Amino acid sequence: MKDKIIREVYSVLENRRDNPINSYTSKLMSDDKKKAEDKILEKIGEEAAEVIIASKNNENIVSESADLIFHTLLLLAYKGVDIDELFDEFARRHK
Fold this sequence. Notes:
It is a single chain. The protein has 5 helices and no strands. It is mainly alpha-helical. Helix 1 packs across helix 4 (61-78) and helix 3 (36-57) runs antiparallel to helix 4 (61-78).
């Protein structure tokens, strides 16, 4: 199933959080001059704006939405949220 990729991506994000390497995601989740959470939230804001622009221009909306979802997953992984909590919330809303 295609939704399996969300769990796989999330697992990688958790691994990069717990075992940082020289990667984009590890760097976002690491504190340096700027707090990690602030860096991630800035990216989410940037990606949300890009989704809005993509929608208004009728172009790249899938790519920009994937970026927004990725960075939202990154925030959840950084905050230690179990991915099943997200799926449970969607299931609860689907009823």
